[in-house]
Amino acid sequence: MSTPMVITAAMVGAETTREQTPHLPITAEEIAEDAVRCREAGAAMVHLHVRTADGKPSQDAELFRAAIRAIRKRTDVLIQTSTGGAVGMTVDQRCGPLTLTGEDRPDMATLTTGTVNFGEEVFWNPRPLVRDIAKRIKALGLRPELECFDVGMLDEARYLAKEGLVDLPAHFDFVLGVPGTLQARPEVLDFMIASLPEGSTWTVAAVGRHQLPFVDEAAKRGGNARVGLEDNIYVSKGVLAKGNWELVAEAAKRARAHGREPATPEQARKLLRLS
Ligand code: KMH
Ligand code: ZN
């Protein structure tokens, strides 16, 4: 039987707005409601950002706590918190969710391993900042998802491993198609996979119109996929997804078409070597 496919729902993000789609969840209850439906549709994990009541991106620990509690009250989906936040945030702001311990501790956290252009802006990740976040993730006893927006970020993960800040094999997320950086093409995905440290696992998060086609590309290659309103708001050309769950349902359909069942949270925990 084929390895189950871990589908991650990137539900909120920092850039998508209610003006772009009325279906973006913002409050803890809205996030939890959509997360329940994502889990039912086949997501094993949610990639979580939070917003203030007026919809602004935030990395506030208490907003994360409220969202995590609301989700865990209703579903067993794994929770991966962002440490990327929004461009322009300080490292302490970005690490808000890494201050949550005990029953509010997330299951995983992201770690972007280098600086990239991000549309018209810069997603700033110089080495000292990356080391700082890597240490905080380790101190909390979490495994990072290494967010690679470009090929060199894979090599940087190896460098972090040499410094003892990241354990290999690791779990990587190839973020493809952000304007200003590496674009979403099948040959790019092949090169990223070939460049992985041995034994590592991977997810692909392709943005915009590439999101759903790259679920197929990932399924064919034995990898995992991330979908959701953080990266794409359309379920088909010009048709808004009615929630993250609709993108997850479409991803699950595509996974099954390639003989891959969506992983349960328990299976994802084993596949991604989470504690
Ligand atoms: N919002 C982007 C600038 C992450 O979540 O770790 C960064 C981001 C990455 O979304
Ligand atoms: Zn994110």
From TrEMBL:
The keyword Transferase applies. Keywords: Metal-binding, Transferase, Zinc. Its cofactor is Zn(2+). Transmembrane segments: none annotated. It holds the Pfam family BKACE. Residues 258-269 have a biased composition (Basic and acidic residues). InterPro entries: Aldolase_TIM, BKACE. Residues 256-275 are annotated as: Disordered. One of its GO terms (molecular function) is metal ion binding. PANTHER family: 3-KETO-5-AMINOHEXANOATE CLEAVAGE ENZYME, 3-KETO-5-AMINOHEXANOATE CLEAVAGE ENZYME-RELATED. This is 3-keto-5-aminohexanoate cleavage protein. It comes from Myxococcus llanfairpwllgwyngyllgogerychwyrndrobwllllantysiliogogogochensis.
